[in-house]
């Protein structure tokens, strides 16, 4: 697999050039890269053009600059020092946004190996900003809390649970008692909460048992504020990444079950991703650590002797992915060597495509940038490979797609893809 670190290295050199901080060795390295090809020369000129860079940076929201900085920390391993002044931190985070834009420009060549041509229409109007930490929490009494507007700290109580919102976009349930029902309160009616992210939103939640869940855009998770000792059961719509805490009642492990479109995933303690959007053709469950059992709840109770119809249930090992196909006879099959990086790219702040068709790409764009997408004419059959930050304005994605012959018409928040 290609090492994308080189793109960040070149991006860092260009940002240092813009800040006037290149040392002699770095200047020589950058000059050598520029001299390698006419494409590099053209790209360098475009990325360092002051008016263009200023316009692109203005499209970042303040939170977008913050998330861009955190993404660079993750990609490069760098950390700010304690001696950094407030002004220095503010500039470095601004520079991080610039670095994201520069790297996205470099990645145009990862897709097409030719200069991107941006139409004036797209350049003028496609300033759709990426998604941010946004969600709505629905409590047991049906009252709702808008989490992106709520102040940090304690926001609600549910029975003996204190619900807290943290500054880094996380919802935390703190139990004053055991998060698993005891024998005395098994007859009590469960209290359910639901966290829902809109299109253009994401959020994290730490459940009462300590399990961590990352919700992608246009997703929801329903869960009790106290789990039953016979099983910790939640319901998912959309996409989420789970890190399940091991929970024991006495000497018995309490299973964790995720019900999503047409399936139930049962685990004890593990890391996995479920993609169950209603507009995707296949429900995908990808296992990173531990072991999970995936049960096809749409299949009949009698075993099917036809090997092409898939399984009623599968036990996944790390690195595997189950795929549940729809139809009158839903099929549950396993991919022995799944692309783990692609499956969780969204959680790590990336779009990652591996021979991905345009319709799939546009569905991801629609959810993350909160836009409506329509196709006009024949849909291009091209497949795309590459990786780009989810922190960039939508125009950066358009540059990549346009360079391969895809055109767009923009009307408000509706995007028409024209062949």
Task: Please provide a written account of the structure.
- This protein is 28% helix and 32% strand.
- The strands form 4 sheets. It has a 19-stranded mixed sheet that branches. It has a 3-stranded mixed sheet with strand order 23-26-25.
- It is globular.
- The protein is an alpha+beta fold and 419 residues long.
- Residues 1-5, 80-94, 108-126 and 301-309 have low confidence and may be disordered.
- The chain folds into 3 domains: 5-125, no CATH class; 132-342, Jelly Rolls (Sandwich); 348-418, Phage tail protein beta-alpha-beta fold, CATH 3.55.50.30.
Outline of this structure?
With 419 residues, the protein is of the alpha+beta class. It has helices at residues 5-19, 24-35, 38-47, 50-58, 62-76, 86-112, 120-125, 340-343, 358-369, 394-402; strands spanning 132-133, 136-138, 144-146, 153-158, 161-166, 170-175, 192-197, 201-206, 212-215, 219-224, 232-243, 248-249, 252-253, 256-260, 263-267, 271-276, 283-289, 292-296, 313-316, 321-325, 331-335, 350-357, 372-376, 383-389, 407-411, 414-418. The strands form 4 sheets. The protein has a 19-stranded mixed β-sheet that branches. Strands 23-26-25 form a 3-stranded mixed β-sheet.
């Amino acid at each position: 697999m290609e090492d994308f670190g080189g793109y960040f290295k070149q991006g860092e050199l260009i940002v240092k050039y813009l800040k006037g901080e290149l040392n002699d060795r770095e200047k020589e390295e950058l000059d050598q890269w520029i001299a390698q090809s006419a494409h590099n020369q053209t790209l360098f000129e475009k990325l360092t053009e002051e008016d263009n860079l200023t316009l692109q940076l203005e499209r970042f929201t303040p939170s977008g600059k913050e998330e861009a900085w955190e993404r660079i920390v993750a990609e490069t391993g760098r950390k700010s020092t304690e001696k950094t002044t407030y002004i220095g931190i503010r500039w470095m985070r601004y520079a991080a946004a610039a670095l994201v834009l520069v790297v996205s420009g470099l990645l145009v060549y990862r897709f097409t190996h030719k200069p991107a041509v941006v139409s004036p229409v797209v350049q003028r109007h496609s300033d759709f900003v990426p998604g941010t930490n946004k969600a709505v929490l629905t409590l047991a009494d049906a009252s709702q809390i808008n989490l992106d507007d709520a102040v940090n700290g304690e926001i609600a109580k549910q029975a003996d649970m204190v619900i807290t919102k943290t500054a880094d976009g996380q919802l935390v349930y703190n139990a004053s008692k055991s998060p698993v029902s005891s024998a005395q309160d098994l007859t009590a009616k469960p209290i359910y909460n639901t966290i829902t992210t809109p299109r253009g939103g994401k959020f994290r939640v730490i459940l009462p048992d300590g399990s961590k869940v990352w919700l992608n855009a246009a997703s929801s998770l329903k869960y009790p504020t106290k789990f039953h000792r016979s099983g910790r059961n939640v319901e998912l719509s959309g996409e989420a990444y789970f890190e399940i805490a091991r929970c024991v009642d006495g000497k018995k492990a309490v299973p964790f079950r995720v019900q999503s479109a047409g399936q139930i995933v049962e685990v004890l303690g593990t890391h996995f991703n479920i993609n169950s959007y209603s507009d995707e053709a296949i429900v995908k469950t990808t296992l990173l650590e531990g072991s999970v059992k995936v049960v096809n709840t749409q299949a009949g109770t009698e075993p099917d002797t036809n090997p092409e119809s898939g399984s009623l249930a599968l036990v996944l090992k790390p690195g595997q992915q189950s795929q549940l196909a729809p139809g009158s006879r839903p099929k549950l099959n396993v991919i022995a060597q799944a692309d783990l990086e692609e499956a969780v790219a969204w959680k790590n702040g990336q779009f990652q495509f591996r021979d991905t068709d345009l319709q799939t790409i546009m569905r991801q764009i629609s959810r993350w940038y909160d836009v409506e997408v329509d196709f006009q004419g024949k849909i291009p059959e091209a497949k795309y490979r590459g990786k780009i930050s989810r922190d960039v304005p939508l125009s950066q994605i358009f540059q990549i797609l346009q360079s391969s012959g895809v055109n767009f018409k923009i009307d408000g928040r509706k995007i028409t893809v024209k062949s």
